[in-house]
Specification:
It is a single chain. The chain is an alpha/beta fold. The protein is built from 9 helices and 10 strands. The strands form 3 sheets. The protein has a 6-stranded mixed β-sheet, sandwiched between helices. A two-stranded antiparallel ribbon has the order 1-2. Strands 8-9 form a two-stranded antiparallel ribbon. Helix 3 runs antiparallel to helix 4 and helix 5 runs parallel beside helix 6. The longest helix has 25 residues. It starts with 6 loop residues before the first helix and ends with a helix.
Length: 297
């Protein structure tokens, strides 16, 4: 266990499976639906018999009723590829009340989410991959299934740092092409990007038949902007600091933020993305429990 993985949280979530919303293509048998037909307990459909089909799959009762030969088809079960994309741009160093204190930033919250999901997925026999999204792909660990590989993923999560500007849109396009087979792609970011740019990225991921989920991390002051005196605001991604009187711009700021959040929500819905807006003040165990429960078959 690492310090960002709470054993009590893992024990609580262990009974909730991480399910894909769409069929997956794996390389071993697992608990997830496959787009191909195979053997499992879940009946899919009937189809007419053609020469060469396995006679053991003939439904003799259907033949007795209709005098025609029908084959029973079942959903094949396979394993899942979980690909975690964590934003490591400078803005992820922001925490409650503007703190950059270790353990309280967006990056630390992302570390807990990603680490716990990786642990749970590996525990149910699924492959786990990890990508760090800064100005470029700063880390790329293709998904694999093994305890040793999980340790490598957790080690990298423990060492990750946030700095520089974001290149999230370009990175999502790159990852969409690099993940060759269907996967559950989980993006953890504060999404400081124009919604129009993100829309093309998610359409690309969905075109590649990936199941996409997003944890949109925000701190409540970024929404409410409850400051009552002039303050110096620093851009964590490199721009010059600005001295601002919040009482003069507060109303316009809050309106702009609400418009941005509404655009993000509509864009995610149109792209069929499993979108979760998360305040970093929230209990991450509750956030993950709601995420897993909503994805149950």
């Amino acid at each position: 266990m690492r310090e960002f993985i709470d054993p009590s949280v893992v024990a609580r979530l262990a009974g909730l499976a991480l399910d894909a919303r769409s069929p997956m293509v794996g390389n071993v048998s697992g608990r997830h639906r496959s787009p191909t037909r195979g053997s499992s307990l879940e009946f899919s459909e009937y189809r007419k018999y053609v020469p060469g089909d396995d006679l053991r799959r003939l439904d003799w009762r259907a033949w007795g009723r209709s005098d025609r030969y029908y084959i029973k088809e079942y959903e094949a079960d396979t394993n899942l590829r979980l690909c975690l994309i964590v934003d490591v741009s400078g803005s992820m160093n922001f925490g409650a009340d503007g703190t950059k204190e270790a353990g309280k930033t967006k990056l630390d919250y992302a570390r807990r989410l990603a680490g716990t999901l990786a642990y749970l997925a590996s525990g149910q026999g699924d492959a786990v991959g990890l990508y760090f999204a800064g100005e470029n792909v700063q880390k790329e660990i293709p998904p694999k299934r093994s305890g040793r590989h999980l340790r490598h993923v957790l080690d990298e999560l423990g060492e990750m740092k946030a700095e520089g500007e974001t290149g999230l849109p370009e990175i999502l396009h790159q990852v969409a092409e690099r993940i060759q087979q269907r996967a559950l792609v989980v993006i953890i970011s504060d999404l400081f990007v124009e919604p129009e740019e993100l829309n093309n990225c998610f359409q690309h991921l969905r075109y590649r038949k990936h199941d996409v989920a997003v944890f949109h991390l925000l701190q409540q002051n970024e929404i409410d902007f409850q400051f009552d005196r002039p303050m110096k605001f620093q851009d964590l991604e490199g721009a010059a600091p600005m001295l601002i009187d919040p009482t003069e711009i507060g109303k316009q700021y809050r309106k702009a933020v609400q418009e941005y959040l509404e655009k993000i929500k509509q864009m995610m819905r149109s792209s069929a993305v499993d979108y979760r807006r998360v305040g970093i003040e929230e209990n991450y165990a509750e956030v993950l429990a709601n995420f897993l429960l909503a994805r149950k078959k």
